[in-house]
Amino acid sequence: MNWERELMSWGDGWWSSPLLDQVIPWLTHLGSVVAVLLFIVSGGILTKSRKLFYRLLLLYGIQSAILYGLKYLVGRQRPIFFLELPSRISAGPGEILDPSFPSGHTLYAFMMATLLGFWFPRYKIVFVIMACFIGWTRIYLGLHYPTDVIAGGILGYAVTRLFLHWVDLKKPLN
């Protein structure tokens, strides 16, 4: 969408900085598959619950199936290929092999934030802010359009809430 390209080009003029260009490529991976798997393994170890571990793996599988099904169904190219923005992903590990819509990092960040907010409601806003930040890093890096990030956030939250409704994940943490 043209408005997204214009917004990203406009934002590049005021939000870019050399410090962020060095830090953001690393922070964005807080929403990566590796971070999710560490989250799942840590949850299983800390609670000593195989049941929780397997349920978190199931949630991850469901989220991934929806994510990659949509990515390849829609087939939207990433903005980095269209925008004339400087590449910021060279400062850290980057992946741009799969389609853009929706943002997987944002989806996984909202999945983890929703779970953590469910288990620790007192800090829910902190988890949501972190997930939003991870989504913004994807736009900052030119890897996703704003609608990719919004869709990833909505899916990550909604699918996790539905999962929590059907599957009891609270008991192992009590």
Q: Could you give the count of β-strands?
A: 0
Q: Which runs of at least 5 residues are low in confidence (pLDDT < 50)? A: 90-94
Main beta sheet: strand number and arrangement? none
Oligomer status: single chain
Overall number of structural domains? 1
- Morphology call: globular
Task: Describe the 3D structure.
- There is one protein chain.
- This protein has one domain.
- With 174 residues, the protein is mainly alpha-helical.
- It contains seven helices and no strands.
- Helices cover 68% and strands 0% of the residues.
- About 3% of the residues have low confidence.
Notable traits:
about 170 residues; globular; mainly alpha
Give the gist of this structure.
The chain is mainly α and 174 residues long. It has 7 helices and no strands.
SSE order and pairing:
Blueprint lengths: L1 H14 L2 H10 L5 H15 L2 H25 L29 H16 L4 H17 L5 H21 L8
Helix pairs in contact: 3-4, 4-5, 4-7, 5-6, 5-7, 6-7
